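Quarterly update from the structural biology core.
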Amino acid sequence: MSHSPAKETVIPAIFIAGLIVCIVTGHSVIYAMLPGYCLFFIYGLTKKFSFMDVLKMSWNGIKKVKNILITFILIGMITAVWRECGTIPFVIYYSSAIIVPSVFILVAFLLCCLISALTGTSVGSAATLGIICMTVSNAIGINPVFTGGAVLSGVYFGDRCSVMSTSALLVSELTGTNIYVNVKNMVKTSIVPFLVSCILYLILGINQSGRAVTAGIWDIFKNNFNLELVVILPALIIIVFSAFRIKVRTAMIVSILAACVISILVQHRSFYELIKTLLMGFATKDEQLAAMMNGGGIISMLTVIIIVCLSSCYSGIFEGTGLLNGLKSGIDRMNSKIGVYGGLLVSSVLANMIACSQTLGIMLVHFFYKDTHDNKEKLAVNFENTVVVIAPLVPWSIASAVPLAASGAPVQSILTAFYLFLLPLWNITAQKKRNIPHSVF
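Predicted structure, tokenized:
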């Protein structure tokens, strides 16, 4: 098929303009993505592809991520039932008891790392432990920008390298790699950035003057949940199953079933309440608890499911029609000048600024870089060290705006999200030292 450079530039520009309008007006990017799909669909028709051809392109894109869509449903269920059965309240209650002002920022970072690694969700972690950290931060007089940066860094620690993370699962699906191998490689490449982040947050905390923590916040959990040791079982199942490399979906299903049993037998929830929680998310009439704990459920994943489906359709149409071939040629020239990882880093910044969505950013970058690596595992870990963690550094991106809003952190917190800055920078430095253009380990 012949290509029109002007048309191939104008159509993406119109789509980008729609995304910008949605961000400026405060509307969901879905309102731009749906018309965008129609626009790309029409483009396919103008390139002499039949209606069914373009539909097949869309379906080919969705087929690449069909497994992850099922996992999204399980994630919605697990983030709700872990609240219901007391798993998340247990971790928050007993971990938070050790907080003192001088190390509060560091502990906030570490706890958010822990919760996000267990749940695999940045939004869920921000909406649970994140909001508690911000509440305590305000109560004891810690600068909310510092705490917010620690929360944002922490919630994306697990979003990047948890076996339940939607972004990690998406990268695994797109690259055709084993998620457990990916996680091992991600840990290797994040040790230094993680340790340096801990040091920086400790320094910030030591230089802050805070007040003593009151027990009122923790009593909210104690009064609303039975915090027996058994409620931690659903989280332990995920950890143990992951250690033995049992399939993620199997681990999640078993964890959900265990949490359901605990909800009924330990927390004394009715079967109707449990089903409602799985579908609609955890909800309580206690206003203080609701502000910290409400959320999750299959319904909470509908937006991201729609975004992933549309992004996948885009990917299929882009590949089938060659819409982005002109831009891909420019990226190839950039790679030849600054190296594949350097080009991937620059492209990740641009893709996330344009896409306003971590998912669409991943899909776009994958389209441009899927053939640049001789090893799929290298490609996967390079994605995790660039496009995945850069998304939350873009203020107008969903990946940034939603966790910050969920936790109540100010936008300026992005500036102190040290882990998210250090990870891609450290790995490009490590590559230069080793003179290995396609690998970070």
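The first helix runs from residue 5 to 25.
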